[in-house]
Amino acid sequence: MGLPINVEDLLHQRKVERTRIEYKADWNPEPIIHTITAYANDFDNMGGGYILIGVEEENGRPLFPLKGIDPESIDEIQLSLLNKCNFIEPCYIPVIEPYVINGKHIIVLWAPGGEDRPYKCPEKIYTDKGGQKSNKSYYVRKGARTIKANHNEERELISAARDVPFDDRINYHANVAALKSALIADYLHSVGSNLYQSVMDRSVEDVGTDMQIVRGPSEYKKPVNVGLMFFNDNPEIYFSCARIEVIDKPDPTGKGMTEKIFRGPLDKQLRDALAYIKNYIIKEYITKVPDNELAIRVFNWPYAAVEEALSNAVYHKSYQIHEPITVMITPDKMEITSLPGPDRSISDQNLENRILVSRRYRNRRIGDYLKELDIVEGRNTGIPTILEAMEKNGSGLPSFETDEDRSYFVTSLPIHPAFLNGTEIVSAKKRNHTLRAEGTKKL
Q1: Does CATH number 1.10.10.10 belong to domain 7-164?
Q2: What is the pLDDT of residues 127-184, one digit of tens each?
Q3: Whole-angstrom Cα distance, residue 20 to residue 210?
Q4: Closest by alpha carbon to 57, among 25, 10, 13, 104?
Q5: Beta carbons of 43 and 140 less than 8 angstroms apart
Q6: Per the CB 3.0–4.6 Å rule, which of 121, 176, 238, 383 could disulfide with 37?
Q7: pTM of whole model > 0.85?
Q8: Which pLDDT value is given to residue 442?
Q9: SS3 of 275, please?
Q10: Do 283 and 419 form a contact (C-beta atoms < 8 A)?
């Protein structure tokens, strides 16, 4: 067994948000069981979290060299952990994996969001065998802390339990064989998971179970939706219109319009669509500054802004709605549309002020896969990145549009003003040659 993630990334807080990682210097049952319960409840649909036992921390950062735990105590800790997890209602067992890092033994617990939430556990975990009992409560994560849920949070947690995020649901219309071992192996190799070492010697069912993309009783194992989205050659078989369409419409009448459709696993279609936009849509304007060896360079759309906007669309789209993600390019703007709109916790005023901080996520696992593959960064960083990229390029501010019913979401990126005046532009393919020929330098 192993984890579908590189443990070094957890230690150095890469890819997984700090709020989803907890470090414990020693095996201390009570706070660990509380945190496991909170991760299982996944109050904000962030995907659960990780607990690293044997790692000291200071101000939320792990201390190096690692403290580690006595290797002779590992079996005892695992047995005790399993016994204490029996106090959680309904039953919940995290993935438990020992590791040796730089000669130090640690235990990593992976507690993904549970299918049977809400979960509760005893407020006090007694280590003796005196039969003492404690009241049981619900626990949730608030930032980087585990807290006992208050009355309102309990009600919200119970309400949210009725709606497991779609990407983390079992797909009863597909078989485990729909998950392709080659795609799984490529992913595990890319992220540096130790599962890769055994992936070709084990069944897809076994590896998928370790990755939490196969679930169900032993006699009726089924794939989870997120597994079909990333590890099947054609997710549209299971999720109609799970694709990206890029339409270049240079004339309102449609004359000269071109359309490219990108299919396949979500990460592949996103990469392919971005590569196409970068090579064939994004153009550059270069002008010399008088009495200066430098040149001014601007783009019709900065690639970083397009990358974030399209990645956000893939992450936040509802794959239950049978409409593709569309990228519409017209002479004055680029519009990226996905369905549905943002969560109602984001107000119209937030949209107008370009502040889009979602409290709860529609898909809790798609983002994890995209981050592990270095396609997207942390949650709630997309809009600031878009704003920064547009500002650095000298472009106008983007706009974000939805309707009262939150049925759609459009990110509109205005073209740089230099491209509205018939100025000669340089395509991506000619860019490097032009720069070499003119000896320009990037500002």
Answers
A1: no
A2: 655 446 789 999 999 988 999 999 999 998 888 777 789 999 999 999 999 999 999 9
A3: 19
A4: 25
A5: yes
A6: 121
A7: no
A8: 32
A9: helix
A10: yes
